[in-house]
Specification:
Length: 69
């Protein structure tokens, strides 16, 4: 069984630049828009093998809906 952790940040590109060359981090894709939904993100695999998504909502209404919880 796998696990996915999604983390919402203000600046996806800045975090990508910070982690892309870290040892034991496997970048799975460069930052990009997620087709069909207002999310800009990238994925990596951490040293424990967990998949992590770093994301930002690009639509204010969607951001408000998910971040106000």
């Amino acid at each position: 069984m796998g696990a996915l952790l999604s983390i919402t940040v203000d600046d996806v590109d800045a975090l990508y630049e910070r982690v892309k060359d870290l040892p034991n981090i496997e970048i799975l894709n460069e930052p990009c828009m997620v087709p069909g939904i207002p999310v800009y993100s990238f994925f990596f695999k951490d040293p424990g093998g967990y998949h992590v998504e770093i994301q930002a909502f690009t639509d204010p209404a969607t951001r408000d809906r998910f971040e106000s919880r």
